[in-house]
Amino acid sequence: MDYGSPDDLGRPTGVKATITKDMINTGTSANPAIQPPGWSGNGTAFNEARGDLLGKQLGGSGDIPENLVTLQQNWTNTPTMRGFEGQVRAAVEGGQVVDYSATPIYNGNNLIPKAVTLIGKGSGG
């Protein structure tokens, strides 16, 4: 896994990983002590999530600040990102190796990404 270095504003810049079977379900939940850039302090009240760029089900660490961005819980974190991660997981469980990347896209100096580009390319196409 390669977690990019934070940018000048301290924002996570992305992750690249090659997902293999031994990584599935080895990740950790987002650490509540980590406050990603733009975090309001109350995820429930503001529909926010500490969004993993590389999700727990794919072996991502919730203890690495470079892996966590502030996202909307509904519809961005779940079901959109979780659904994509589920497709990657299914491909890996089906025998493929998947090259995966997640890149947050920021609007100017905004601390919260306006989008996250997710790419997964399996060894079987």
TrEMBL record:
Q: What is this organism's lineage? A: Bacteria, Pseudomonadati, Pseudomonadota, Gammaproteobacteria, Methylococcales
Alphabetic keyword roster? Endonuclease, Hydrolase, Nuclease
Residue stretches making up the Type VII secretion system protein EssD-like domain: 5-121
Q: Does the keyword Hydrolase belong to this entry?
A: yes
What is this protein's record name? Answer: DNA/RNA non-specific endonuclease
Q: Does the keyword Hydrolase apply?
A: yes
Q: Name one GO molecular function term.
A: endonuclease activity
Domain of life of the organism encoding this protein: Bacteria
From the record, give the transmembrane residue ranges: none
Q: Write down the Gene3D superfamilies for this protein, in alphabetical order.
A: Extracellular Endonuclease, subunit A
Region annotation (Disordered) maps to 26-59
